[in-house]
Amino acid sequence: MAKSSEGDRGPGRQSGRDVNISIVAIGMRVVGELATEGVLKVEGVVVGSIRADREVLVARGGVIEGDIYTSQAIVGGKVVGSIYADDRVEVLENSIVQGDIITNKLVVNEGGEVNGRVEMGEPKALERGANVAAKREKAPAPQLEAASDVY
What we know:
The chain is mainly β. The chain has one domain. Helices cover 9% and strands 47% of the residues. It has one helix at 125-138; strands spanning 2-3, 13-14, 17-18, 20-24, 29-31, 34-36, 39-42, 45-47, 50-58, 63-65, 68-75, 78-80, 83-91, 96-98, 101-108, 113-114, 118-119. Strands 1, 4, 6, 7, 9, 11, 13, 15 and 17 form a 9-stranded mixed β-sheet that branches. Strands 5-8-10-12-14-16 form a 6-stranded parallel β-sheet, with no helix packed on it. A hairpin with a 2-residue loop joins strand 2 (13-14) and strand 3 (17-18).
């Protein structure tokens, strides 16, 4: 985890105070749920859901296979899962979202790709996402076989 030193601009500043930035670096693969009160930047691979109170940044080459729950998301890589953002989602050029986007505002730059359902004007996207997640948790879990090559 790192603190931002970008001055008054960039994702590390919120109302004049530092916000924690957590980074999943290039070459890193994280399996499981991630949660932060600040900003999460994904340059590597995350397999599992992400909850970031402030923002999720998916860098070019970054991959998320799971749902995202945040205030704002900027996708420059690939997301396979739904994005629930209370404020805004931006899909950059040459990036892909394969899943639903539920948010208040959406920007898709030329060359950006969204393959899923889009619902805009949804100021309570996180609340709605929590309801969807709760329904999934009530469903019976699939039986998994033990894998001998898991690290």
